[in-house]
Amino acid sequence: MSTTGGGTVYLVGAGPGDPDLLTVKAQRLLQQCDALVYDSLVPREVLALVPESAEKHFVGKRRGHHSVPQPSTNAVLVELAGRHRCVVRLKGGDPFLFGRGGEEAAHLERHGVAVQVVPGVTAGIAAPAYLGIPVTHRRAGSSVTFVTGHEEIDKRRPSVDWRGLARSSDGLVIYMGLHNLAHICEELIAGGLDPSTPAAAVQQGTVRGQRSVIGVLEELAQAVQQADLASPAIVVIGEVVNQRVETCAPEPAAVEMPIPIPIAITQAEPLPVKPG
Ligand SMILES: C[S@@+](CC[C@H](N)C(=O)[O-])C[C@H]1O[C@@H](n2cnc3c(N)ncnc32)[C@H](O)[C@@H]1O
User: Fold this and answer.
1) 154 noted as active-site residue
2) Are residues 73 and 52 in the same domain?
3) pLDDT tens track for 70-121
4) Which range of residues forms the domain containing residue 138?
5) Are residues 93 and 143 in the same domain?
6) Is 83 in the same domain as 157?
7) Given 18, 91, 94, 176, which residue is catalytic?
8) pTM, whole model, 2 decimals?
């Protein structure tokens, strides 16, 4: 579909939290944008790059909290692109990895809005890295699977075949997995994964508040509970955890994430949803 001649929406990956992990392109767009639409998992220091004059909309979704419905977010993006030259849709990590970036890009294209994706550093690689854990290693197999543990988000999506994954993937990187962790670990063991497989969980990777547990699969859920780890967290399962090189892990950045309340919102409520 040809575009309307309005502005461009950039689906920008903010990275996992540490502002130093922003890409150069993301930083440039944030500094130049006329409007910003952003989620919860972005620290204030990143949002502070945006000009004060830019219109800002918070559309964050947090488990157990009010969330802006996806159609409203889509409508906001289309509307903003009609009034602004450069609209940044900022998403934690990478926009195309469990970030609904694909849905938003398709919606914008359908509505004739120019859209470009700006990949970001995903939490599933960065959070383990901040413990010194590589997500692949030649001595630890040849495959890794990025998988969501939060299956009920969208009933239209088929549920994850954990038993199948136990047999087919050397390493697993699980997003949004804390709430289902006991079930996930049980299913992986039932699928044939050795209960003593190395496993780790990292809360708030790359930022202040980073905490982790490292252990074995059969004890992971209990260890996470005892350590009181909370979302956002990444779980890594597989021999890669044993390839950890602790001394290469960077210090987490001294920034808070997720941000507790939206900052400097010019319009607190999303714009009305337009049909289509
Ligand atoms: C909706 S997904 C978005 C993932 C994002 N698009 C990415 O590429 O990292 C949100 C989940 O990502 C993970 N996550 C995001 N940031 C994280 C961080 N700094 N530390 C640990 N996990 C994080 C958590 O599993 C969280 O529940």
Assistant:
1) no
2) yes
3) 889 999 999 999 999 999 999 999 999 999 999 999 999 999 999 999 999 9
4) 131-248
5) no
6) no
7) 176
8) 0.91
